[in-house]
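Work package 3, deliverable 3.1, input record:
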Amino acid sequence: MTPPAGRHFLQIPGPTNVPDRVLSAIAAPTIDHRGPDFSELTLEVLAGLKKVFKTDSNVIVFPGSGTGAWEAALVNTLSAGDRILMFETGQFSTLWCAMARKLGIEVDFIPGDWRHGVDPAQIEARLAEDSSHQIKAVAVVHNETSTGVTSRIAEVRGAIDAADHPALLMVDTISSLGSIDYRHDEWGIDVTVGGSQKGLMLPPGLGFNAVSERAVAAAKNASLPKSYWDWQGMLDTNPGGFFPYTPATNLLYGLREALTMLEEEGLDAVFARHDRFAEATRRAAAAWGLDLLAKDEREYSSSLTAIVTPDGVDADDLRKVILDRFDMSLGTGLGKVKGWTFRIGHLGDLNDLTLMGTLSGVEMGLDIAGIPRASSGVSAAMEYLSAG
Ligand SMILES: *Cc1c(COP(=O)(O)O)cnc(C)c1O
């Protein structure tokens, strides 16, 4: 293979492409994280994050991956042997469940088919049965990155309220935050888990917990062991603009720039842009004659689309052809859907032509791999994008 000219097309659903503005911001000299300039940076970033989470509560920023932020959510609010309710939407909910079990939490894991989101009716039924309130929390994934299915979190909140149950509500928004509408306060979320490398357009390395007052109160009695992930040190030092240990200084520069970019475009415009890219991608899939993994149109994800390959076609062979020939990375099938699905990430820093380049690469890849298609998905997507 000759080294390719031009940019690599990184169209996996995270990490996403980092805008030049953010990369430049990250390249600034590292400063004293106990000095006065640093506290200004912290306070600015924390204020900006609240707008993205849509909360007046605190957002805690950890140097770490999204997985670390999952752990922080659990260990700060729960004790060994506590019961929680989770829902099998796909690979990420499965991994979060496995983590909870490793930590000594008893998980009721409601089975799912990896083609649907959280069923609010099943949440309500499980909670209604739990009249002695043994279930301490409901923990779900907003946008299941392995399947391209977005759960209706406002309805999950409604289900908990309908059962009149005091369980905390924890939501993983790692691949939806900054791409798909999400409302921490309005939906009564107790812990929202986020990460830097998807809709927030940063490199990997930051994990977030937005924490309600109820969550902070629950933390007072939660006895799972924690040290690095302990919220308290953050809550004590953040108001002055500092952290209990060295934060990821340069990623915070990048975060400040990314938050500025989201604010300049306007969150509603950002969400509409993602909706539009997702619709164009679905039209391309329909024109190719390929099925979506997501079965319910109310749950189509705006940040990625998972596509099913025809019987007998290995989706990873197609991905390899596209990587080798066109220097584009697409998301592999994860867990139970490996081998017969691939994922197109359309979140973060992209525009109409980035998407068209992506879909063109897929269409040419289908042809080179000899995978039959009904018609041109590229034409269908162009028609849609050029119309409005
Ligand atoms: C990416 C992702 C994670 C894992 O985040 P890491 O930074 O890889 O630890 C968890 N949940 C969802 C929904 C994700 O998309």
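Residues 14, 65-67, 92, 141, 145, 172, 174-175, 195, 204 surround pyridoxal-5'-phosphate (CB under 6 Å).
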